[in-house]
Amino acid sequence: MKNNNKDDNLILGKIFQLEKDKSLLLDFILEQYSSVIKQNPRFQSINSNNKESVNVAELLEYLKKKSSPTIVNSTSSFPSPSTSNISPITPNSSTDNLQTSPNNNITTPHINTNNNSNPTSLPNDYSILSKEQFHYASFECYLLLTHFSKPELINAETEELFRVQMEIPKAKYQGFIKLLSPNHISKHPLFTSLTYRLWLLKYFDFKLFDNYDSLMIWFRRQLYFILAGIINQLRDPFDDKDNKQIIDLKLCAYHLEKLMEDGKPSSVIDDQYQTKFRALDLMIGQILTKNSVHLSKQVILATEYLNEPIFHQFPLNTLIFEDLLFYNLFEFKEDEIVFVGDEHLRVSPSLKPLSTPLKITPTMEKISHLNCFVIAYQAEPTNEHFKRLLSSLDSIQQLIESNIQLVQDPSANTANLLKLTLKKIATWLIKLLSDVHSYKGENPAMAIDIACTIYSKSREMWGLLSSNKQTIRTTESNFSSFISASVSYHYQRASKAFRPMTLDNFSDFIDLLTPEIKSNLTYFTKGFQKHHSQCQVVALNEFVNLYSSDLKVVFADVYFLSPAVLKSVQTASAFQLFLEELNLIPYDKLPPVKDYVSSVIISWCQNQEKYFNKWFENSFKLDKFLPLDKDVKHSSSVIDMFQMFYQTISTLGKMRGSLSDNFPNFICTLSSMFNNCLIVYNSSIADITNCNQKNQLYPLSINERIHKKGKVRRSLSLSNPIIQSTLNSSSSSSSSSSSLNNQQQQQKEKENNYSQLTPFLQTRLQSTSLLTLCVCLNNLDFILKHLHDYIEQHSYNNESLKVKLIELFQPVQIQIKNTCKQLIDFIGCRVVFFDCKSTILDQTYLAPLIDNTDRIQFSLDSLNPHLKTIYGNVQSIDRSNEILTSVCKSFVQAYQWILLYSGPNRMYQPKDASMIEYDIELVKDFFLDRDEQGNANGVPDKTFDAIIQGTLKVVNLLMELASEVLIEQFNNNTSPNSRNMFHNDIILSVLIHRADKPAKNFIKKKEQDPSFHSIKKGSKINLNL
Fold first, then answer.
1. Average pLDDT estimate for 40-55
2. Domain ranges of the chain
3. Which of these, 179, 187, 358, 752, has the minimum number of CB atoms within 10 Å of its CB?
4. pTM (predicted TM-score)
């Protein structure tokens, strides 16, 4: 039974509550739709006393048919007044002068309605005042709180100074005074009350305005200001969303505004105006009654509460104070914001009277200063504003840390104001630090450093305001996201013009990106350095990650070479090297560019190899092997070859960053091609010069002629008429026919003295000048000299690569050096045995030495033109001296041939030895080319002595001996105990050139000896006697 009674009581309680709610709703409906209900006789008699008898269903059906304006679209939204929208106006904003009232333009939102007569939805951003209009509203508030509420304290001079400081024109000020003055039609709320403005809208005089547009500007400012104040009582200051009650309030005000805008009533006594205004007045009254413990519950209309003020609550009160404070702290001179306030954050006397009615505590005044400094910096980002902002934040922090009770006073909104300020600062700083490149101030690094400091202090102060007073520490990780986000935003802006990114615009983008990264690390990211030790690493890593994504897109599906591909590869390489040189991120974290471009470089190298081969096909055809000029004595081909490879390696070097650790391998690949070119070039020089055919130029020795002919001479009488006349002075001269036969025989013998050159070699020797040989030698020297530079330059400070290049080029260097040696020997041999053959081999010592006064000088003089060519066209004097030594060596060889192997055309006697020694000294003087001090400028003294040593031995030890002694030595050499230093072939060669009887008889006997035919069979001239 007890349970049943309990359930019955609950049911009865719910019924009573529903009846009460129904009564309240009917009261609201009757009041809100009184004009509509009066139109129906059936419902005219309804009032608060007989409302229980109303048929609610019928009443609602009637109201639906009449399209009641109270039907609200629940999906509509409205942003509450925020600090960003009701802040001080822009400096030096233009104003229009008024005669009786303010007529500045106001931001009128777009009306979003399907039926202008019965709007059912709110426009976007409804009831938000522009910065300019809010400033006027704030100044009106100042007048109401000082000029009107305390007329006995009015100081005209102070108020005028304040007006000027607030940048309010005189005419506008007079209009404000006139419009804010009560018309004494009825009693009004207190001037300090928010409802006084609502009372003005109920009784204001339309005739005070010059035109209807001015009226609407003033009307909207008062209406929106009232809404902002009432909404503060319905919503938490940290909540940006409108609840249904706020939406209903705005919609009610919007209906009134639409009536004023579309209906244009003539005065406030218009029935429609009174109806719309009464609905708003009633709704505000109910809100004030419900939310205030001071108001009497019988008060319905807000304009009828006259005894106590409805204060401007937070955050409207602080916004008003901050707006006026801003103009009190700063002056606007030539588009600059100049601080004229108190550095100690003290409020000026002209503004101090507002602190009490607006409930602004001294601590809140300092926080308001902080907000003003934020606004000043946002309007003009200078370091002075930023430093002042930081200084004010420091002072507030010190104040709170020393006395936490200052922000815990429940009678003031100090804590809420500080939280709202810190939230606004945090929002602003997050935007700034997340996109530092958008900063337009004078010193980005300094500004960012200060911003980071403010951000850290803001977080610490927020911790002090929390309920548990937790300590919030700002670590490096808090700034990492800022750095990455800032780089990301900047990269997106920089690359926007290059989207979609392709091979055609990739290089242009990197050309733009490189200086941007430098600027970021130097001027922007550097600002985080005190707060994040690795800030530059974080920034560069973000750049690299974004760049790597684009790199993959650019080089995706590249299967062929083109100028754009190579240019992009080179650009990527240069950028990779740039990243390496920054030395901020590990090598393995760099963009994987080599994965995309290695195949491209392989194809490029293959094409280069084809180009090299084609070049070689034409290089020797085009090169005439003539000196380029008097100073540059090598020919064009060797320069072209080096330039070709230097350009190729340089092109590859531009791709170095793209190839990463593959770069040394590609250097070796191209260098191997260069090495092959050098090998071919060296062999081509050897082929052009025929330097390996030197032995073909030597004349045949006696031994070779014995081997070929079987007999060395027939008789002295057939050999040489001069020798015959010398040995047989008693004989008569030969007849003319005999002389002709002797000349023919002499020519035949002469031809038999020389080896037979092939037609090809004969033609090549005639067509290849001594100058060409010198230029070829210069070319080889050029290669040897510059190969070292090539290795040093293209090892790129990589010791491992340098060792590989040295090993690669070492064999060809040896080959080229050998070719140079062969070529030098060939030049000397050619000068003596080909160019000067007729002078040296054919004429020297043909007449008996005693009758030949110019025995050797004529032969030496014949060398001078050729030596002049050598010294005039060989690149270095040292190389020229080496060739001179080769000529000297060949001349001595020819001299030996004349003394030992030219028989039977030449005959010598023992007494000729002294004259031959004298001639050898002349030869030495010629090749040594001594200066005035006796120093050799040509062939070194010791070198010449070593060359001539064997010849001197023959002259000194053999040629002075009688033929009988020579025959005896010859015979002794056949015994096993013989110690003679000369072989029999040398002794035999000396005897062949003797015309005395013992020598002739001995030679005649030996011609029949089979052993004579085998002496040094097949040998050439023996230099080392």
1. 61
2. 2-65, 131-311, 317-467, 484-592, 697-727+747-762+840-871+883-1013
3. 187
4. 0.53
